[in-house]
Amino acid sequence: MFRGSSSRDVALKALELALLLSLVSAFIYYEVSYVSGIDDYISDECWYVSAARNMLSKYLNIAPSELVKGDIVRVTIELQRPINGSRYSMWVSEVKEFIKRLGGTVVKDDTYYSFNSEGNYLPAVCADVPRENISRITRAPHLRKYSIGYCYPNANGILDYVNAEHPPLVKYVLGLSILLLGDRPVSWRLPSILSGAVILVLAYLSVKLIIGNRVGGFLGIAAAATLALDTLFRSLSMVAMLDIYVSLFTIITYFCALNGRLGASLIPLSAAFASKFSGAFTGLPLFFHGLRRTRSLVFIVKLVAIPVIALTMISTPIILHDGLESWWENSVVGAISWHLSIKTTGGPPKSAPWEWLIGANPFPLHYIYDESSGQWIADIIAKGNIPLYLLALALSIFILPVVKELKDSGLTYTFTWGVFSMYVAIWLAGART
User: Fold this and answer.
1) For residues 65 and 134, is the Cβ–Cβ distance under 8 A?
2) Is the pLDDT of residue 345 over 60?
3) Please, are residues 203 and 227 in contact by the beta-carbon 8 Å criterion?
4) Per-residue pLDDT averaged across 306-316, rounded?
């Protein structure tokens, strides 16, 4: 009887593991397959990837030539600013002729980097040039500067942009992926996809830890599967943007707290903060949980000090290059001002946090053309599972009187709505995104 029970346990564990591995593998395969066919920037990738590429050269002293392997080098040649459109067209023609003499091929010209009378464009030509001739790019007519790598987007000043309004950690990750895997879209997105896969595993482990026994494991699989099917999660896991990294470090922080490792939870909290300032929102539920668990002033001091110290250390290359005062003004004071401002006037839709729960004004990240309807439709969109969100809200209200009696003593509840309340707070403070 004991032996039969043991065999059944082994079989159930094997099934549980097989289901988890199958789910994670299918998720990775789907994400990679989908975005491999999109050979261009998706939404805000244009800002973060460009900034990562620029930071490699500006702050980490990595020469552009180190970013490319092979006989052909892709280069974006930024021109000086012309006085009008006709002058710009003439300059572009001269640069294209220059590239031809180098034995190169034009990839994008002024049909992509189109002139804008208000100046909101990049006067540039992107080309593939033989490696042995790359040093001659400095002789290009009307040259302002150039950068090696994937063609830059059409945005004014993008070759100098470092995305100072956001902390640098994710841009370091993107830069590393460019160095290791090459400067192409699927390389930028792979770390995001892997982050999504890790989140699925942690969701499974969290539910299994809370529920316990064999049922907990299979409920964990169900939770991970539900997350994998969420449109918002899938969308943000396949693009080189900041949000999935914040999600990753947030759930690691939560998982550490769930395991009673409050000290260790400060490390992923710091990483979330160094990825995007909203990553600090996890500090609110961690504060209440730590206060209840330890009643220690030391922990509260660490909760504030360690993320700040970590951000400063991660920003060291920027501080050494630009100076402490410049970093403080641009990356701290300026960033706070930017985050508390309206950023989408005339751009993508904005929605209040409570509107996320009903899917109001979702953020389209990418469009494809639907030949049957003759319209452009959003195939990658930041919109969650609305029925599930509303159900979670209803259940949260229902269990509020007994939240402390839950198996995790209300930790999951506190993390969920504590972080959400911080988004509500910054919205009320003036942030519009």
Assistant:
1) yes
2) no
3) yes
4) 96
What is the rounded distance in angstroms from the CA atom of residue 392 to the CA atom of residue 173?
33
Residue 276, domain member (yes or no)? yes
**Mean pLDDT, residues 204-211:** 95
Give CA–CA dist 228/162, Å, rounded.
32
* Residues spanned by the domain of 341: 181-428
Q: What is the pLDDT of residue 212?
A: 85
Element (H, E) at 365: strand 363-370
- Measuring CA to CA, how many Å separate 53 from each of 13, 182, 183, 184, 199? 44, 11, 9, 11, 27
Can you read off the two tokens belonging to residue 230?
């969420």
Q: Which of 236-245, 322-331, 398-407 has the highest mean pLDDT?
A: 236-245
Q: Cα-flanking dihedrals φ and ψ of residue 172, to 5°?
A: -65, -40
Strand partners, 280: none
Interacting residues of 73 by C-beta distance below 8 A, sequence separation 6+? 65, 128, 129, 130, 131, 134, 148
**Within 10 A of 118 (CB to CB), how many other CB atoms are there?**
6
**Residue 3: is its pLDDT beyond 70?**
no
Q: How many domains would you assign to the chain?
A: 2
- Contact at 8 Å (CB) between 104 and 129? yes
Alpha-carbon distance of 256 to 411, in angstroms, equals 11
Measured CA to CA, the distance from residue 68 to residue 129 in angstroms comes to 11
Report helix, strand or coil for 370: strand
The answer to whether the beta carbons of residues 82 and 92 sit under 8 Å apart is no
Decide if 307 is inside a domain: yes
**In whole angstroms, how far apart are CA 46 and each of 119, 166, 188?**
18, 14, 11
| Helix residue ranges per DSSP H, 238-322 | 243-258, 262-273, 283-294, 297-314, 316-322
| Residue given tokens 């470090």 in the structure block | 249
Question: What's the whole-number average pLDDT of the chain?
Answer: 91
Q: How far is CA 369 from the centre of its chain?
A: 25
Q: What 3-state class would DSSP assign to 151?
A: coil
Helices (H), 346-410: 353-356, 386-399
pLDDT digits (tens, 9 = 90+) for 38-73: 999 999 999 999 999 999 999 988 866 656 667 899
- Together in a domain, 197 and 340: yes
Beta bridge partners of 432: 342
My answer on whether 127 and 200 are in the same domain is no
Q: What residues contact residue 207 under an 8 Å CB cut-off, 6+ apart? A: 216, 219, 220, 222, 223
pTM above 0.85, yes or no: yes
When mean pLDDT is compared across 21-25, 49-53, 59-63, 168-172, the lowest value belongs to: 59-63
DSSP character at residue 364: E
